[in-house]
UniProtKB/TrEMBL annotation, chain A:
This is Phosphate transport system permease protein PstA. It is found in: Cell inner membrane; Cell membrane. The keyword Transmembrane applies. The gene is pstA. It comes from Denitromonas halophila. Keywords: Cell membrane, Membrane, Transmembrane, Transmembrane helix, Transport. One of its GO terms (cellular component) is plasma membrane. GO terms for biological process: phosphate ion transmembrane transport.
UniProtKB/TrEMBL annotation, chain B:
This is Phosphate transport system permease protein. Belongs to the binding-protein-dependent transport system permease family. CysTW subfamily. The lineage of its organism: Bacteria, Pseudomonadati, Pseudomonadota, Betaproteobacteria, Rhodocyclales. GO terms for molecular function: phosphate transmembrane transporter activity. NCBIfam families: phosphate_pstC (TIGR02138). Signal peptide: none annotated. It comes from Denitromonas halophila. Residues 233-449 form the ABC transmembrane type-1 domain.
Length: 435, 461, 289
């Protein structure tokens, strides 16, 4: 054994040196650990700020200010000829009745501009509510009815405290005289926050107080139905082929690399594909859930294929060998033994892919699912939007009242996402198997 | 379109019948003795059923896909020359009007006689096409089903036949992914080439001014807008850079902390919570960036005496960084967990502290994988659309100042294509050129990243 | 307790020479032989290890002398590695692992609260079954310990330490021209000697080796064994081995483990020639293993 010089410190001195350096190293250790803690906390902080900001902005949208108005349903206005036919009832000018009732409540208001402001306290939707009520029960004609109708969004915002009553008049969307009327209405118990059913049952509207998510929700549901019914069979079939039957060669390598890359292609590029191919080459109807479903299918396919392959991989070879060993063909072994075992994993992957599709916006913008559509779509060929697109559209609208609706729509969207992920997690838990 | 479900139901009925008769014939040829058959009778039924269904379905799909564009073309060629000469933009509008007339929607302006005639013609073609489809699909199904039926013998290998058909179906499904890529490449490439015919590619790639709106004005030639995309690239890079400065340190440090320090309980809670960030739709982040973060930054900037644009790059980048944190952290987590335990033990066994082990052994060992993960994250940031569309604005500034507004490639693609656009204007074609750049860049990044990660994994397998 | 045991206790501590009597658990076996030595470097008393519910080490007491090589043998899964890892608290890194009992290093309890594992492991370094050089250069591998522990003030010092450690590990001549190559590029035997060089560069008092040769070919094994013999001059060495021949070749004392029990400890020659416990005899005669 060679020992060059007296370079090595004796054990004791080396130990002393280590001890001497310990304080510094412990400090460095603490710092590093603290950095890690900070990183995790900042991440969680982001999450909570995001969620809190959404919820605090949005929960008020589930209530809507309603106004009680007393309308005299003069027969002359509604049905001068007394036919009571549905057509006449439908076409009658209910908004003038409502205006009349407003004038009756505030007889002192005069002048065009003031009257206009007064009428503006009630939502445009009130006339429709009144019409529905009359058409449901024509015997009301000639009587005086008292009904709750949605108030205008500005009134709503004031009631919810989003408009500061104490701000200077010039900085306030609601002027002093209008504020006075509102105060009077409040004093008469004519204004009330009520659960906002319309938000869930109506389509989009130019009036925030009438806008609902039903149309967008149905659009999303139709889109996802198309996506699911295409991407699940396609994805599973592709995964089964690649994992169980494909020979290992250049071609399958190419497919594999291609799928992995496709999974990371920006979603907007799929929108371009949809626009150029599905709309311009194949002439599929723009804005239709069918088209959205096709584009999202292509987008989620890689996710589903990758997850399904992982699920197939986790089925131990002994299962295949057992089936083959008793004379099953490879196809039978796969269909009857491997796929059933891999199915939970495949479903989990599919749900995650669907969740991805549910939240996707950009490609839908490309294929025109971004128009203002008030009607609730009835099928996959009707023009429609989707929930995330509706969020985008509302987020772009200047009215203050859309902010809370956007946030509320986000809450609904996140609710669905949470539900889907929960199902995926439960599925995984329930069928998790260790071989 | 309402006929299609009926057709499908009929086809289904035909297929079921094919199955039934296939089974029956198998019994008959075997004189009721199943042992004589090569395969179980069900396979003969399936064989015939597949023969009946598949060719017909194929024709049905192809027909539905192409019928729209073929009919349109026929209608257009039937229009008076004056209209045909209109040039692609206007022609498109006309076609749209005709389609609207056909489907009974409201049309802009009073429809004139020519339009009404064209719409009638369109309607006529459509109904002819539907009837033909009906007949052809059913006839093909019947004929091909009969062919399958006639092939049944006792020694016919029905199972092998069925299996090879299924095999081919599987192959077809797995090529959908390839077709998607091909479709993407072709569609962006094709339109880009048309774009580069009016705007030189060098101007597009190196030009410093971007103002495609000018080209909208009718009195100007299409190419007179400025299509220099450098400000967009710069804006994209700026926002990506900001996002990465947020996401990489936080994502990496949380991955390291959760993998090496955190107790099992903290890990079990914090990891999924962080991953929630990745599951939130980007449109939500966009809303958050535009309505919460941007005003906040603007106000705090104003408080410090800084002039912050209301759509600052900082806000968009910050929120994008937030979104990418879990992306970085879960990819890094995988990578860190792939570092063999023996290396950790080697370091601990000599008295290294945890942070020394992490910094001097685990991090260097995991570095290639982490680089791959970061590249994937960068590609993700570059392609991210909604956050920037909602929070970054349209101003094409060539600046490195994060407090100013910039625009990005994806924002421009969306602005150029959303709304009722004439498809052939340089403006819309420019969007495809941008799409091409986006696709090529992200693809290259993904390719390199996935390669690095794979090599990294192989090293420790 | 066997009469021969007492007679043999020439250099052994009389009082501790007595067979150790189980105090915990009914299924604990007594240890036969000389668990104690005079002037121990490490003294373990009543060590128990649990992995969750599994009782992996049952009430073991054992000394490691200065300048000796102690071999630990036994069928696989009997707890050799687990016990070895107690000696520098490597088991801290295993989440569900719980260690009780007293382990004194130079008279100081290493499990006590105020002991920091970092300097402890610098004094009791460990070499593992599978060679695990860091994916860095050979030089950096050896310099790792001195660097983190701040043992060298200058680059020149570090060079000297690296060279002398590599020399002590009998690796210098093979790698002196390629110190900048990655350590993982060496052959298995060289890698293991590199790991040993890495350990001795921090000048520990005890080196723990867990089956250091199990992944090596016979020639590399011989080199490592020769190395162990040389290192004994300076360090105490505890080596786990599955090869009885190896234990016989390199060690002065041998401990035989069986299902978490320490069955017998003797001087190596004696243990292999005249085992006192039936289980030991069964094992070394190859009746099971
Ligand atoms: N990390 C662990 N978790 C749970 N049980 C373990 C762990 N490591 C070892 N064991 C158990 O402790 C016992 C002793 O293991 P070990 O010390 O590795 O045995 P040896 O090295 O003698 O082969 C074995 O039964 C083993 O199953
Ligand atoms: Mg072991």
């Amino acid at each position: 054994m060679t020992n060059p010089g007296k370079a090595l410190p004796e054990g004791a001195t080396s130990f002393a040196r280590i001890q001497a350096g310990m304080a510094k190293r412990r400090a460095a250790e603490r710092r590093f650990k603290m950095l890690g803690r900070i990183a995790v906390s900042v991440g969680l902080l982001f999450l909570s700020v995001l969620l809190i900001s959404i919820v605090s902005k949005g929960y008020t949208a589930f209530w809507q200010t309603q106004m009680r108005i007393d309308v005299v349903l003069t027969a002359d206005e509604i049905d001068p000829d007394g036919t009571r036919s549905a057509e006449t009832l439908r076409k009658a000018d209910y908004s003038s009745l409502i205006k009349q009732s407003m004038r009756d409540m505030f007889p002192e208001v005069s002048g065009r501009r003031d009257k206009f402001a007064l009428y503006g306290l009630v939502s445009n939707g009130a006339a429709f509510d009144l019409r529905d009520k009359v058409m449901a029960d024509p015997s009301l004609i000639g009587t005086k009815v008292s009904l709750w109708v949605p108030a205008d969004d500005d009134v709503d915002m004031l009631m919810k405290g989003h408009i500061d009553r104490n701000a200077a008049e010039d900085d306030r969307r609601i002027k002093d005289n209008v504020l006075g009327w509102i105060n009077q209405l409040e004093a008469e118990d004519r204004l009330e926050l009520r659960f906002n059913i319309d938000f869930f049952t109506k389509g989009d509207s130019r009036d925030p107080e009438l806008a609902g998510i039903r149309g967008a929700l149905m659009g999303t549901i139709f889109t996802l139905i198309v996506t699911l019914s295409l991407s699940f069979p396609l994805g599973v079939a592709a995964a089964v082929y690649l994992e169980e039957f494909a020979p290992k060669n250049k071609w399958t390598d190419l497919i594999e690399v291609n799928i992995n890359n496709l999974a990371a292609v920006p979603s907007i590029v799929f929108g371009l594909l949809g626009l150029a191919v599905f709309i311009n080459v194949f002439g599929l109807p723009r804005s239709a859930p069918l088209l959205g479903g096709l584009v999202l299918t292509l987008m989620t396919l890689p996710t589903i294929i990758i997850a399904s392959r992982a699920a197939l991989k986790s089925v131990p070879p002994s299962i295949r060998d057992a089936a083959l060993g008793i004379g099953a063909s490879p196809m039978q072994a796969t269909l009857y033994h491997v796929i059933p075992l891999a199915l939970p994993g495949m479903l989990t992957g599919t749900i995650i892919g669907m969740a991805q599709a549910l939240g996707e916006t950009a490609p839908l913008l490309m294929i025109g699912m971004v128009a203002f559509i008030a009607d609730v779509p009835q099928g996959v060929f009707d023009p429609s939007t989707a929930l995330p697109v509706q969020i985008y559209l509302w987020a772009d609208s200047p009215e203050r009242a859309y902010v809370e609706r956007t946030s509320a729509a986000i809450m609904v969207l996140l609710g669905f996402l949470a539900l889907m992920n929960l199902v995926a997690v439960l599925l995984r838990k329930r069928f998790e198997r260790r071989w | 379109m309402t006929q299609t479900p009926i057709l499908l139901v009929l086809l289904l009925a035909l297929t079921s019948a094919a199955y039934y008769f296939g089974c029956k014939r198998a019994f008959r040829v075997a004189d009721g003795k199943i042992r004589k058959l090569h395969s179980l009778p069900g396979y003969y039924g399936l064989y015939v059923a597949l023969w009946a269904a598949l060719p017909a379905l194929l024709i049905l799909c192809a027909w539905l896909l192409f019928q729209g564009s073929i009919i349109t073309r026929m209608v257009v060629s039937s229009l008076p020359d004056a209209i045909q000469q209109l040039g692609p933009d206007r022609l498109n509008l006309v076609v749209n009007d005709i389609r609207n007339l056909v489907s009974g929607n409201i049309v802009s302006g009073e429809p004139d006689a020519i339009m009404l005639a064209a719409a009638d013609y369109y309607r006529g073609l459509l109904s002819v096409s539907r009837n033909m489809l009906f007949a052809i699909v059913l006839i093909v199904a019947g004929l091909s089903g009969w062919y399958g039926y006639s092939k049944i013998r006792a020694q016919h290998r029905a199972r092998n036949g069925v299996e090879s058909i299924i095999n081919w179906l599987l192959v077809a499904c797995s090529t959908v992914a390839i077709l998607t890529t091909v479709g993407i490449v072709l569609s962006v490439l094709f339109e880009s080439i048309r774009f580069f015919q009016s705007v030189p590619i060098t101007e597009f790639l190196f030009g410093l001014e971007w103002s495609p709106q000018i080209a909208l004005r009718a009195d100007q030639a299409g190419s007179s807008g400025a299509f220099g995309a450098v400000p967009l690239f710069a804006g994209t890079l700026l926002i990506t850079f900001i996002a990465m400065t947020v996401a990489v340190p936080i994502g990496l440090m949380s991955a390291l902390y959760l993998a090496e320090y955190a107790s099992a309980r903290v890990r079990a809670i914090a990891k999924p919570l962080l991953e929630v960030l990745a599951g939130i739709p980007t449109v939500v982040y966009g809303f958050f960036a535009a309505l919460t973060v941007a005003p906040f930054i603007r106000e705090s900037g104003g408080f410090l005496g800084l002039d912050v644009a209301s759509e600052s790059a900082l806000a968009a980048g910050l929120v994008m960084g937030m979104m990418i944190i879990p992306f970085v952290s879960s990819l890094s987590d995988d990578v860190i967990n792939a570092v063999p335990q023996s290396l950790r033990e080697g370091a601990y066994g000599m008295g290294a502290t945890s942070s020394e082990t992490i910094r001097r052994v685990i991090f260097p060992a995991a570095l290639p994988g982490i680089v791959g993960a970061i590249l994937l994250a960068v590609s993700r940031a570059i392609g991210e659309t909604m956050i920037v569309v909602m929070a970054a604005g349209l101003a094409s500034n060539l600046t490195a100042n994060p407090l100013e507004a910039v625009t990005t490639v994806t924002v421009q693609i969306v602005t150029l294509l959303v709304g009722d656009q004439e498809f052939d204007s340089p403006k819309t074609l420019a969007a495809f050129a941008l799409g091409l750049v986006l696709f090529v860049v992200t693809l290259a990044l993904n390719f390199v990243a996935l390669y690095i990660v794979r090599k990294y994994r192989e090293q420790y397998d | 307790m066997s009469p021969q045991g007492q007679a043999m206790a020439l250099k052994l501590d009389g009082a501790a020479g007595a067979a150790h009597v189980a105090t915990v658990g009914r299924d604990v076996r007594e240890t036969v032989g000389e668990i104690r030595v005079n002037d121990p470097r490490v003294r373990c008393t009543d060590v128990n290890v649990h992995y969750g519910d599994k009782h992996a080490i049952k009430n073991i007491s054992l000394d490691v002398g200065k300048g000796e090589v102690l071999a630990m043998i036994g069928p696989s899964g009997c707890g050799k590695s687990t016990f070895l890892r107690c000696l520098n608290r490597m088991n801290d890194t295993v989440r569900e692992c719980r260690v009780t009992g007293e382990i004194l290093l130079d008279g100081e309890d290493i499990n006590s609260r105020h002991i920091d594992v970092v300097p402890l492991r610098a004094r009791v370094a460990m070499v593992f079954q599978k060679p695990n050089p860091f994916p860095k250069s050979i030089y950096e591998n050896v310099a790792f310990g001195p660097r983190i522990h701040g043992l060298c003030e200058s680059k020149a010092d570090l060079d000297v330490v690296v060279e002398s450690s590599l020399r002590k590990a009998n690796l210098w001549d093979e790698v002196k021209d390629r110190l900048d190559d990655v350590g993982t590029g060496l052959s298995g035997g060289q890698q293991q000697r590199l790991c040993i060089a890495r350990a001795i560069a921090i000048e520990p008092e005890v080196i723990l080796m867990d089956e250091p040769c199990s992944a090596l070919d016979p020639i590399s094994t011989a080199k490592v064994e020769q190395l162990i013999e040389e290192l004994r001059q300076q360090f105490s060495i505890v080596i786990v081995t599955h090869s009885m021949q190896q234990a016989a070749r390199v060690s002065q004392r041998t401990a035989y483990f069986h299902m978490g029990d320490l069955i017998e400890v003797s001087e190596t020659d004696r243990l292999f020639i005249k085992p006192r416990h039936q289980l030991t005899e069964d094992y070394i005669t190859g009746r099971f293993g």
